[in-house]
Structures are given as C-alpha cells and as structure tokens.
Amino acid sequence: MPYHCDLSPGQKIYLDNPGSITLITLASAGAGQQQQSNTQVHTGPWTEIPQIIRVDNGALLRCVTAQGTFFWQIQGMQIGVASATAWDTNQATPMQVTEVGPSPIASMPPMPPMPPMAPMQMGDMQMSLNPMTLRMGKMTLGLNTPTVNNQKFCTQCGAAIAQGDRFCGSCGYQLP
Ligand SMILES: [Zn+2]
C-alpha cells in the first residue's frame, strides 16, 4: 500500500513497496515547474508503516522491513542513504505519513464489453440491424424495400426523420 507525506507546501514524498522494493518518489511543484526524482532500493517487504521525521536540513525516512531497517536522508530533491545514528526522534518532529487510498480512476470497474447486437423487441415492434429492418405487427420496413429508399430514420430512437434534418424531432439526437 503506497504512502505519501507532505514534506513542505511544495514538496511531497511518495513511498511504495511493490514486491520487495522500496520505491521513493520525491515530487516538487514550484512556480511553473515540476520536478520528480525516484529511488528504488531492494529492501524486502515492509513490516511497519514507513516513518518520516523533519530534521534541520531536510527530512529523514525510515523503513522497517523483513531484511532490516533502512534510513534515507532527503535534502531538496536528493535522496541519500542515512546512518541509523541520524535517526533521533527526540530531537526531530515526526511527520504525518498518510496511506494513499485507491484513486477514483483506478477503482472504477473496467467497461463491460458491448453485448452482441441482437434484434430489439418492443411489444409487437421488432428492429434488427444488418439488414436494417423494422417490423411492426404484420408490417415490415426494410432499407432494401423501394418504398423507404429515401426515408431516413434516427439512429438513436428509430423515428422517421426528414431529409436534411440535423436533429431527430422525436428524441433530439444529433444526426450524423
Ligand atoms: Zn430520435
């Protein structure tokens, strides 16, 4: 589960742990420019929520994993390995590390595939495509029959429309 933390009003840090890798992304948004830097370290899976503390010259990051405890120092856009002795929670302010929820886009279910086009049946009216026929009761209209050669139908609702109409008079659909 990815985490993020606001290091400063213009700088965010994102932490993720895909597989056994700790992925650190620094993103800063300055005036009119965006910067991003990534660091990937093979750390093993996290066993604790990563922690960040603010220090004089930036921030320190600590990840506890099955393979041990890892420390990094963040200065500006630089991510460097820090020593364990730098981690002094008595003299530093722990920062809020927030779990990143699934984004609205990612949580949307994929579009279901379009069902195959089947003849539509409404009461005693049946419409099928290919060939385009409209059957109402005992009457069948088809595009191949001479009587409807010049007659156009709304592709949305099937209502008859006059030649040159830009919108369907029945449903308002914009005609192609
Ligand atoms: Zn229509």
Automatic annotation (TrEMBL):
Q: Which residues form the Zinc-ribbon domain?
A: 153-175
Output the InterPro entries linked to this UniProt entry: Zinc_ribbon_dom (IPR026870)
Instruction: Indicate what this protein is called per its UniProt record.
Output: Zinc ribbon domain-containing protein
Q: Which organism is it from?
A: Leptolyngbya subtilissima DQ-A4
